[in-house]
Each structure stands twice: as C-alpha cells, then as structure tokens.
Write a structure and sequence with these properties.
By secondary structure, the protein is mostly helical. The chain is 44% helix and 0% strand.
Length: 78
C-alpha cells in the first residue's frame, strides 16, 4: 500500500504520522507522498523505513516506495 493511501484510509494527519515515525517534520512525509508517481521517487533511509513499516503494521513496506510494474508473462522466444 502506498504511504498516501495508508494516511488517507486511516485519517491520520501528516504531522501526526511524521511524529510517530520520528521524521524531522511533516514536510519529510509530504516529500515521500508527492514523489510516489515519479520515475525516481524519494526513498526513506533504512531507519525511517523500518519505522514506517512498524507504525503501519507492515501495511507500507520498502517495496511500496518503488514504482514496480508487473512483468508480462510471455513465453521466451526460441
């Protein structure tokens, strides 16, 4: 689940979430949220990433910060 989805679904103010994860300010969280759709999203440092996963009970993980697309399932050419 994306961070923005988690915050919205749980009706958590961004400033409160920032405090829970130990971010310096709510601006830090907004930077992560606002870069979700970019080709090079902002990725939290490992310690903050652990806090995000912990605070969200694993609903937001490191994988959620990367814009992975599902690979197509085609047979290899011979």
């Amino acid at each position: 689940m994306r961070l923005s989805e988690y915050i919205k679904l749980n009706s958590i103010p961004v400033a409160e979430f920032a405090s829970k994860i130990g971010a310096k300010s709510r601006a830090t969280v907004y930077r992560y949220i606002n870069s979700e759709d970019e080709n090079k999203p902002r990725i939290p440092d490992p310690d903050l990433m652990k806090q995000i996963a912990f605070v969200t009970n694993g609903q937001v993980t490191a994988d959620d910060f990367y814009n992975f697309t599902k690979p197509t399932t085609t047979k290899p050419k011979r």
